Amino acid sequence: MENAITESFPRAGFRRRFASWVYDLLIIIAIFMLSGYVCVALFVLLDHLGLINIVRNDFDIDWNASHVMYRIAFNSWGVAWVCGFFIYFWSRKGQTLGMRAWRLRVQNLDGSLISSKTAIKRLLTTLFGLGNITVLFDRKNKLSLQDRLTTTEVVVLSLEANSD
Questions:
Q1: Alpha-carbon span 20 to 41, nearest angstrom
Q2: Residue 146 · residue 133 · CB < 8 Å
Q3: Helix 68-92 vs helix 116-125: angle between axes, to the nearest 10 degrees?
Q4: 152 and 126 in contact (C-beta within 8 Å)?
Q5: Which of 36, 56, 78, 126 is at a distance of 20 to 30 A from 155, taking alpha carbons?
Q6: Is 94 left (phi over 0), alpha (psi -120 to 50) or beta?
Q7: Are 126 and 145 in contact (CB under 8 A)?
């Protein structure tokens, strides 16, 4: 896919964005769970090596009896992987897997792919997807809160453009 697209596509409405968000939510849950398993394995390994001290009941970590920093590290690790998912796909492909299923692409207003920096800004302003609600009130422009704050748009691709 080229960095700048010459063909113009219509902006996506709320229903299509929401459906894409549901698809991505399922993927996000899987990423968070997988990253959690990896993090727990690292904690158990570090505990076994004597580098940290976690409280365990058999294999399970007793989060309430362990230091609060372990919970913070665990959740931060998962959130970092989820954020990385969005930043990677938005800046490299213009689409997450859910967006691809619904033929959506996030792009700059000139049709080019957004940068990693813009993807981070977009992620911070999306408010866990709630920023898309503003599309309901802006039926003419179909711009979400994160679209407006990052000067981007989400468009509906044709079947041909989505297959690239």
A1: 32
A2: no
A3: 120
A4: no
A5: 78
A6: left
A7: yes
Instruction: Give the residue among 42, 16, 54, 34 at the shortest CA–CA distance from 136.
Output: 16
Q: Which residue type occupies 143?
A: L
The CA distances from residue 144 to 40, 76, 77, 79, in Å, are: 37, 27, 28, 23
∠ Cα 28 38 115 (to 5°)? 45
Model-wide pTM > 0.70: yes
Written as six digits, the tokens of 153 are 């748009």
Per-residue pLDDT tens over the stretch 115-149 = 999 999 999 999 888 889 999 999 899 999 999 99
87: CB partners within 8 A, 6+ apart: 116, 119, 120, 123
